[in-house]
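User: I've been going back and forth on whether these two constructs are worth ordering. Before I decide, could you fold them both?

Assistant: Sure. I'll take them in the order you sent them. The first construct and its structure tokens:
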Amino acid sequence: MTESTGVLAGYRVLDCSIAMAGPFAAQRLGDLGADVVKVEPTTGEWQRHAAAGGAQGNEINVSFLSLNRNKRSVALDLKSDAGKEALRALVADADVFLQNYRPGVAARLGVDYETLREINPSIVYVSISGYGEDGPYRDRPGQDLLLQAMSGAMLSAGRHGDEPTPAGQYLADAVTASTAFEGVLAALLHRERTGEGQLVTVNMLDALTTLQMQELSVFTVGKKTQERSAEPHAHVYIRAPYGVFATSDGFVALAFADLHELGRLIGEPAFEGWNSEVEGWTRRDEIHAKTAAKLAEKPSGYWIETLGAAGMWIGPVHGYQELVDDPQIVHNGTFIEYDHPTEGHVKTPGFPYRFSKTPPRLVRGAPRVGEHTREVLAQAGFDDAAIDALLASGAAKETTDAPASASAPDPAAPAHAVPRTEPEPEPATVEA
């Protein structure tokens, strides 16, 4: 086992989550040095079998690869008594247990908080759900797009009468993952101070709602209704100009420009004498239309240089290639690169935080199914004979064969080399 030196070194996390929100939160803990043990079914976690955006891997699909670095894999059948007993042995010396099963599934499997706290009273138990542990929506699927639609966020941007537009990211899952990550850290800090473990519950609906702290307060406290404009304004609670505008060769994003100065620089005399905090609200559609007409006449680079030099907030609209190649991204080292034993050379987003003493680092890429089953169980006190018995009974699984040499994925190959032969507990949170 590779010794960790990160800020969370010495903490062990049992990651029983699937899909995106839970695994992403657990990966962040692993990036900071925690020993994250991914407990997955003997056929492999659901995400191993779901191609991301149609992208297929040699053995590990991109979705799983991107959300499960810095983890070890132990494969257990939690529907078997032996598999449950093995998990309980792992719980005994774990610090964090994380799951995102649908409400009620953890109890049926015997891995709910009340059961596990009897084994380890100091455990920090994190349960992630779509809508909450109880209530009228308890059993609804917590899918990203559905949560975005329900949150009200889609009606804070765009054109009146047009279809609401979802975010270009799995926003609800990502925000929930960050919220769970924060919850783990806070609970561990409490435990350091008091010795007490506790239950931490996080749900996607609350995470996405509280993210809109300013917008919803403008509505509930300021009594300003959520009214979209006739022009495609980027946010209903921000004055014009505010949005994305076409240029002669692409797009730029423009925000909060002083109307008088903007009119002078783009050659729009109508803005002369207008007050940004008055007409910026009352003539929002007109401002957008006139600005759009002028910006379309010249290329993006011209406007970024000209308006930016005047102190206006303007920037490029990147696609992914432009983002990856952006000099600031390159300078920051935002992406990390490494060689994976089955997936070849991998370039993927790295770490969103910096630590001067205990920086996050890449210890291992996403594991193969049960790659560390024997290692993890041995650390929990199982001898070779007991581990062999678990493997022979099917209650556990390990991957011991040498991986095929890494190469470029074959587009004609199946999405995963190991077919699913048994159902697993459904997640409470599933990305698009």
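The second construct, handled the same way:
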Amino acid sequence: MEITTIIIALVVIFIAWKVLTGIVKFALIGAVILGALYFLSQAAA
């Protein structure tokens, strides 16, 4: 399950990198990383 979460996060980050520009790009990438980490921490608990 963790591998799937990481792969989905990487795909979303890749799409954001190609589509978005500037500050919005980095904000969305940060949100995706934080969301993935939160999801993984909930799964581990």
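Notes on the second construct follow. The radius of gyration is 11 Å. The helical segments are 2-19, 22-44.
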